[in-house]
Amino acid sequence: MIAKATSVRFDSISLDSGASLGPVEVAYETYGELNAAKSNAILVLHAFSGDAHAAGIGTETGKPGWWDNMIGPGKAFDTNQYFVICSNVLGGCRGTTGPASINPATGCPYAMSFPVITIGDMVRLQKMLIDWFGIERLLAVTGGSMGGMQALEWAVAYPGCVVSAIPIATTTRHSAQQIAFNEVGRQAIMADPNWNGGDYYGKEPPARGLAVARMVGHITFMSDDSMHEKFGRRLRGKENFGFDFDVDFEVESYLRYRGSQFVERFDANSYLYITKAMDYFDLTNGHGSLTAALERAKARFLVISFSSDWLYPSYQSQEMVRALRARNCDVAYVELQSNYGHDSFLVDVAEQAGLVRGFLASTFEKAR
Amino acid sequence: MSAHAARKQAFVPELLGRSDYEIIAEIVEPNTKVLDLGCGEGELLEWLAQNKGVEARGVEISSAKVQRAIARGVSVFQGDIDAGLADYPDRAFDYVILSQTLQETHHPRDVLREMLRVGRRGIVAFPNFGHWRVRLSMLTSGGAPRTKLFPYEWYESPNIHFLTLHDFEDLAVKDGFQVQRRFFLAGHRKVEWMANLLAEVAVYLVSRDVAR
Q: Considering its fold, how many domains does chain A have in total?
């Protein structure tokens, strides 16, 4: 399956902050065919550092999409049956308008003049994209981590448009710990002199700060067990300690590699804006309580968490499931056993795929 | 034979010979809302959804079983029955089913009370500890009884509360819930007399006592 990125432009979007932004470009990819009734569309929502390239082999990069093990012919999101859409989020740096985009008013990149955005704004832009496709109801909205937040937001903001929601390894709002890790990442970027108040486009980017932010991120995505299994205390290409501050341990090498790789594909200002959007996200906003917020939702829910995910622990999923049950909503929930920490939804997908496949099949049948 | 009857006949062997499932399938009225506590892999709920158009929900503690239930399209919540009903509003369901699970709960009275809060009616099925084989096993061996229905060593048994038909009926009076229908089974046959001695499994349809 070859995936080709394309995009659509809208005149403007109004934001939760009260500001408006325009024009706004959305990069998206699609897989499978939309049926005549337009009833088989699934919106896949990417996590913090993901992009529109969810599946197949990218024409530009030659690389498989971030959820290629879940989306494709015969896979959990079976593209022989369903029409799958994935778009890059607002504020991103992978084709959708974000701080690195040119502000038409100045002819320069927005940088820090880009308005602060929310998960609600991201979803509003996705709704514009879905409307543009002429799709009235989505068979499913789904994603892990920040993608799961968007799925929840969809179910509450556009209840009539969402037949089912599959939030995975996510939360209805960030805890202090989650905000804390994001803040460390932001501070690492802003402490890099090259960040320069966000004004680094066409100059040297704050690569060291961004790499450190990503290193912290990667630690939170793994688990003690998975790190032990993957690296242990193994040394990198040497028999003995170097007695210096070069790389000694495998884990150091891995984090440095991940950090430097990330810098190639991600914009530091996008990091700031998107992590802020995650921290601001709170499904209860404007509704009083979680139960009141979810009262609006009409979707069928499948909620999945992972036993070793300490970044988005199971209790957060259970909290949303309890609120859904209090409204007597149709909700299925399971905690899957995995050693891969928060990354489980991306890498340890065999059981997750079985759940999603069955859930979608019964949802599709009921929706007919 | 109608298609419906054909399906129903296939139903019992399909469900591993669970005779109580057959009774439950008979009791539950079409197009109702059903919660099955300790629903296992969701076979009963799936059958009820497909054949009686019920809105089916389940609670099950085993992750592996929950996965198979969800994969077959049944909405099941992974959780503990002893702790897990508090979230539901009053009278959220037409039926709450407790099929061969009561004897495994830590606080059976609380579970019964909760099931009759969230459900208008409860269907309770349990293995009868008063069956003559159980009595005979204990009398002859002097050890914890082991029979077809109670096959476990005492230290491995998931059954932590043992009850007979008499015990259940006594509790119904004590806790003020009404027995609307009762079915007693030995294998797939109905037991009509000396039930506490001859029934292997009992199925009760109960509701909250309206007089109280």
A: 2
Domain stop point among A255, A276, A297: A276
At position A87, the amino acid (one-letter code) is: S
The mean pLDDT value for A53-71 works out to: 93
- State whether A329 and A343 are in the same domain: yes
- The answer to whether domain B3-125+165-208 has CATH 3.40.50.150 is yes
Pairwise CB contact (< 8 Å): B77 & A331: yes
> Chain A residues contacting B, CB < 8 Å?
300, 302, 321-323, 325-328, 330-337, 351, 354-355, 357-359, 361-363, 365
The answer on A216 and A135 residing in a single domain is: no
Contacts of A322 in chain B (CB under 8 A): 87
A109 plus A17 within the same structural domain: yes
Residue type, A154: W
Residue A99 belongs to what domain range? 2-174+282-367
Look up residue A162 and give its DSSP letter: B
| pLDDT, tens digit, 9 for 90 and up, residues A318-354 | 999 999 999 889 999 999 999 999 999 999 999 999 9
Do residues A262 and A296 both lie within one domain?
Answer: no
Question: In this structure, are A14 and A148 located in the same domain?
Answer: yes
Per DSSP (E only), the strands in B25-173 are: 33-37, 55-60, 75-78, 93-99, 119-127
Same domain for A19 and A119, yes or no, is yes
Residues of B in contact with A355 (CB under 8 A): 67, 70-71
d(CA B88, CA A58): 46
Between β-strands A6-10 and A24-31, what pairing exists: parallel, antiparallel or unpaired?
antiparallel
- Euclidean distance between CA atoms A188 and A211, whole angstroms: 9
B144-171: per-residue pLDDT in tens?
A: 988 888 889 999 999 999 999 999 999 9
Question: Which amino acid belongs to residue B162?
Answer: F
pLDDT at A37: 96
Please, what's the b/e burial string for A251-262 (b: 16 or more CB within 10 A of its CB; e: otherwise)? bbbbbeeebeeb
Determine how β-strand B55-60 pairs with β-strand B119-127. Answer: unpaired
Could you tell me how far CA B117 lies from the centroid of its own chain? 17
Q: Do A54 and A130 belong together in one domain?
A: yes
* Domain extents in chain B: 3-125+165-208
Residue A66: give its domain's CATH number: 3.40.50.1820
Q: Is the pLDDT of residue B9 over 80?
A: no
Contact A2, A27 (CB under 8 A): no
Which of A276, A303, A328 is the last residue before a domain boundary?
A276
* Confidence at residue B7, expressed as pLDDT on a 0 to 100 scale: 47
- The residues, ordered by sequence, that sit 6+ positions from B140 with a Cβ below 8 Å of its Cβ are none
Q: Give residue B2's pLDDT.
A: 43
B72 interaction partners in chain A (CB closer than 8 Å): 358, 362
